[in-house]
TrEMBL record:
<dbReference type="InterPro" id="IPR007260">
    <property type="entry name" value="NanE"/>
</dbReference>
<dbReference type="Pfam" id="PF04131">
    <property type="entry name" value="NanE"/>
</dbReference>
<keyword id="KW-0413">Isomerase</keyword>
<dbReference type="InterPro" id="IPR011060">
    <property type="entry name" value="RibuloseP-bd_barrel"/>
</dbReference>
<dbReference type="InterPro" id="IPR013785">
    <property type="entry name" value="Aldolase_TIM"/>
</dbReference>
<keyword id="KW-0119">Carbohydrate metabolism</keyword>
<comment type="pathway">
    <text>Amino-sugar metabolism; N-acetylneuraminate degradation; D-fructose 6-phosphate from N-acetylneuraminate: step 3/5.</text>
</comment>
<comment type="similarity">
    <text>Belongs to the NanE family.</text>
</comment>
<comment type="function">
    <text>Converts N-acetylmannosamine-6-phosphate (ManNAc-6-P) to N-acetylglucosamine-6-phosphate (GlcNAc-6-P).</text>
</comment>
<dbReference type="GO" id="GO:0019262">
    <property type="term" value="P:N-acetylneuraminate catabolic process"/>
</dbReference>
<dbReference type="GO" id="GO:0047465">
    <property type="term" value="F:N-acylglucosamine-6-phosphate 2-epimerase activity"/>
</dbReference>
<dbReference type="GO" id="GO:0005829">
    <property type="term" value="C:cytosol"/>
</dbReference>
<protein>
    <recommendedName>
        <fullName>N-acylglucosamine-6-phosphate 2-epimerase</fullName>
        <ecNumber>5.1.3.9</ecNumber>
    </recommendedName>
</protein>
<dbReference type="GO" id="GO:0006053">
    <property type="term" value="P:N-acetylmannosamine catabolic process"/>
</dbReference>
Length: 230
């Protein structure tokens, strides 16, 4: 299936954290507008309400996800019905958890892919955690494979992106490989592009000011941050 995601795109993931000051559809729509002004090629957004709010302010392609259920298991667009909701709200592609973990509805991934293609008519971005999951997702019919879930399914979360997984998948699958997860700096972007990424997704570094503030505050020397003002 032809993807509306252009090669060489920077995709901005406009997702809010529950309880954060920016946790609203309106805030994510503003983030999407800012991303478009800055040159983003697409937006990734969570849930029908946020997808609809972003659809109303931009013509950029939207990668829709629908996070439901327990975050320790399969929860990114876990079912066909959850995919249908974000497509009805305006998503142009659907991203979903394509790890090898058991799925909440017990249906095989291939069946979910077939229904999304046949009944919703949109391409599928498979969020994977490992090389084997990437191969399996492509074999099951994914249109694009993303490294989104590497570092989040056990064994600890590294500080930077999984450049090696991007490289291995890009050399092995006959579909675009999207780099996603912990891409925070221009150097990270160049590293995943050099590894063969078709497009690059950045979320936290752009759309989570609370995290980024804490991240930079943590770099302050302890004595400097507590010294009295003169
Ligand atoms: C693991 C998981 O649930 N990742 C989610 C996937 O949609 C989002 O929480 C991430 O923000 C997104 O993948 C972008 O990554 P980063 O925020 O690191 O640039």
């Amino acid at each position: 299936m032809v993807t509306p995601l252009a090669a060489g795109s920077l995709v901005v993931s406009c997702q809010s954290i529950p309880g954060d000051p920016f946790d609203s559809a309106g805030s994510m729509a503003l983030m999407a507008r800012a991303a478009e002004l800055g040159g983003a090629g697409a937006i990734r957004a969570n849930g029908p309400e946020h997808v609809a709010a972003i659809r109303a302010v931009t013509t950029l392609p939207i990668i829709g996800i629908n996070k439901l259920g327990d975050p320790s298991g399969v929860f990114i667009t876990p079912t066909f019905e959850s995919a249908a909701e974000v497509v009805a709200a305006g998503a142009d592609l659907v991203a979903l958890d394509a790890t090898l973990r058991p799925r909440p509805d017990g249906h095989p991934l291939r069946r979910q892919f077939e229904r999304i293609h046949q009944e919703l008519g949109v391409p599928i971005l498979a969020d994977v955690d490992t090389f084997d999951a990437g191969l399996a997702a492509r074999d099951a019919g994914a249109d694009l494979v993303a490294t989104t879930l590497s570092g989040y399914t056990g064994g600890g979360t590294p500080a930077g992106p999984d450049v090696d997984l991007v490289r291995r998948l890009a050399a092995a699958v006959d579909c675009p490989v999207v780099a996603e997860g912990r891409i925070r700096t221009p150097e990270d972007v160049r590293a995943v592009v050099d590894a063969g990424a078709y497009a690059v997704v950045v979320g936290t570094a752009i759309t989570n000011p609370t995290f980024m503030t804490a991240h930079l505050v943590s770099a302050l020397p302890p004595k400097w941050s507590t010294r009295p003002s003169s």
